[in-house]
TrEMBL record:
The keyword Calcium does not apply. Keywords: Oxidoreductase. GO terms for molecular function: oxidoreductase activity. This is Uncharacterized protein.
């Protein structure tokens, strides 16, 4: 099987190299060679002639089959090759979504979406794609439905929809069925997004969504009653996730586009879609099994209650997306945003790591409540974030985390204005003072401020998020505590005693709170930065530039964006996975006390 597929991804110039890879077990060098071959063959821009474009299409089809190969190393190799290719391709959805945040299950639809948009641009490309579909599913009427007389021939779309859950035991789909369904759905979603399809295809999309979700809901309920694994669990499998997500994406496009109003009959279908989608949300939101991308699409299909304080301008958002070029790419990227619509509270948000996290989450489409003492800095940051097209609502509150009453009131106000319980608390506020003075020489005033901010403030913010923030009532959410590698080991630097004590307390608090919240879906996570170039480290040495320069001599510290990226990666994980703790340090920081101070000189040409 492997040899068969690899031999489909070759041309004369590399034929000999490919033949060397047709072995059952691939070495590490073979994997690298295969990945290089794949990338060279998948890059459509290197195949300007029609005949070469056909070869590229054949290569893509082979690569998509290899994503489902039995050999895990082959799958990984192909997955990375596809992501590398998409990241370099123009107009690619992968360029809008960080490859590091893309789950294995999402790679196939990303690739299929690119294939559809790339090869359907020309008449020859569309004909080639249609030929591939014809060979895969032997359904010429479906191809006719897409390529022309959609109004009269579209009844066969329903046959494809019904096949989504026609499976026996664990044999869900044949590879060719998966690819056929994916391509058909993205052809469909792309056309719907651009307003090209007739009423009949709209009808078929909505009927397909109702059929698929009704089956999904019934199977989940039956499995639950029988004590078996819920069907939601299989939505992580690429052969289920990809066609289902493609179908739901097409449904979102139909329901949210304003270019083609729905008539009375379609409105009835749309109402049915919202009902079954809401039922699916209710069933699967807390099952810890359903893929979060599927849940996101379900929430958009279910819509928001009219006149609700939590209403999100879904239609306006999608109308904007669908009115622009490459609409299907933007639609897919929109649905794949892991933090889209999440209500996130960030303490210490006015600068440094907190500000970087705010900017990162704004790009992901989150609603933000920014907390810090500096009102001027918060307002300036809020204005900046509100100019980000994908950003949700932005609130800012000038509050000191040492004031538990004010913090609780702020959290309650944020819940009210954002329209729902807090999804994520980023417990980031903190400070260090008086270094390098040793403990006996430090002022009681500064010791008290560090303890009250770094310990009391963290506990108060978590307490407010759980109670006034609604996490405990919802039994879901994430508390992400930004601690430090200093919290695990006594630092060798003078002046760190109080700060180390506070960070160790944060670690203990995180571990204990995680245990106490057993029985809920609330995650308690920790990100431990190493040395970061922020105002924090300048402040801890009394803004002594010479002392600060000596501290980072010979290596490059992290920047706040590095830590923000780590936070986004941690928060992007599905409900069933928790990254309990993550150390994020500069490569030269080998441990808390050991720094490779020759690193910069050694790597000056590689940075």
């Amino acid at each position: 099987m492997l040899a068969c597929h690899i031999l489909q991804i070759r041309k004369k110039a590399i034929k000999q190299a490919i033949n060397k890879l047709t072995i059952a077990e691939l070495s590490a060098d073979d994997v690298v060679k295969l990945q290089a071959v794949l990338v060279s063959q998948l890059q459509l821009e290197t195949h300007p002639k029609a005949s070469y474009a056909d070869l590229a299409l054949a290569s893509w089809m082979s690569a998509l089959r290899l994503l489902q190969d039995d050999n895990v190393r082959v799958r990984a190799c192909v997955r990375h090759a596809i992501l590398d290719t998409l990241a370099a391709a123009k107009d690619s959805t992968a360029g809008m979504v960080s490859p590091d945040s893309v789950s294995d299950a999402a790679v196939l639809p990303l690739a299929v979406e690119y294939v559809v948009s790339a090869f359907a641009r020309t008449e020859h490309g569309l004909a080639s794609l249609s030929k591939v579909l014809f060979e895969l599913i032997d359904a010429p009427s479906v191809l006719i439905a897409y390529s022309g007389a959609a109004g009269e021939k579209a009844q066969d779309w329903d046959d494809l929809y019904r096949r989504i859950f026609e499976s026996e035991s664990s044999n869900y789909f044949a590879e060719r069925d998966v690819l056929a369904q994916n391509i058909v759905y993205y052809l469909l979603g792309r056309s719907v997004g651009n307003g090209e399809l007739s009423r009949t295809l709209h009808d078929q999309v909505l009927k397909g969504v109702v059929t698929a979700l009704t089956t999904l809901n019934q199977e989940a309920q039956r499995s639950s009653k029988e004590g078996r694994q819920w069907l939601g669990g299989i939505t992580y499998y690429t052969d289920v996730f990809s066609p289902l997500f493609g179908l739901l994406s097409a449904g979102v496009a139909v329901l949210t586009t304003s270019t083609i109003p729905l008539d009375a009959d379609l409105e009835v279908l749309a109402s049915q879609v919202r009902v079954v989608a809401q039922e699916a949300c209710d069933i699967h939101a807390n099952d810890n099994a359903t893929n979060p991308f599927i849940l996101r699409a379900l929430k958009h299909l279910a819509g928001n209650p009219p006149n609700s304080a939590s209403a999100e301008p879904v239609e306006a958002s999608f109308s904007f997306l669908l009115s622009t070029n490459n609409a299907s790419s933007k639609l897919l990227a929109f649905l794949l945003m892991s933090l889209k619509g999440k209500r996130i509270v960030i303490t210490g948000a006015s600068m440094g790591i907190g500000a970087a996290a705010s900017r990162r989450f704004a790009k992901e489409g989150a609603h933000l409540a920014l907390l810090a003492r500096s009102k001027d800095k918060l307002e300036k940051l809020s204005d900046e974030l509100q100019a980000v097209p994908s950003c949700g609502r932005v609130l800012n509150f000038s509050v000191d985390v040492r004031d538990s009453v004010a913090l609780g009131e702020t959290m309650a106000t944020a819940v009210k204005q954002l329209g729902g319980p807090v999804d994520v608390l980023v417990n980031n506020a903190g400070l260090a003072l008086d270094a390098p003075a040793i403990f006996p020489s430090q002022s009681i005033k500064n010791i008290t401020m560090m303890i009250e901010t770094n310990i009391n403030g963290v506990l108060f913010a978590a307490h407010a998020a759980l109670n006034q923030g609604g996490m405990l009532e919802a039994k879901s959410g994430v508390i992400l505590n930004v601690t430090s590698v200093t919290g695990l080991e006594a630092p060798p630097f003078p002046g760190e005693t109080v700060y180390h004590t506070a960070k160790a307390a944060q670690e203990a608090f995180s571990n204990s709170l995680r245990n106490e919240l057993c029985g809920t879906n609330i995650k308690v996570l920790v990100v431990r930065p190493g040395v970061v170039a922020t105002n924090f480290h300048e402040q801890r040495v009394g803004y002594d530039r010479g002392m600060y320069s000596q501290f980072i001599d010979g290596y490059e510290p992290l920047v706040p964006d590095d830590v923000a990226d780590a936070m986004a990666w941690v928060l992007d994980k599905p409900e069933r996975i928790a990254i309990k703790a993550l150390d994020v340090v500069p490569t030269p920081q080998r441990s808390l006390s050991v720094f490779d101070r020759e690193w910069s000189a050694r790597n000056e040409n590689n940075q």
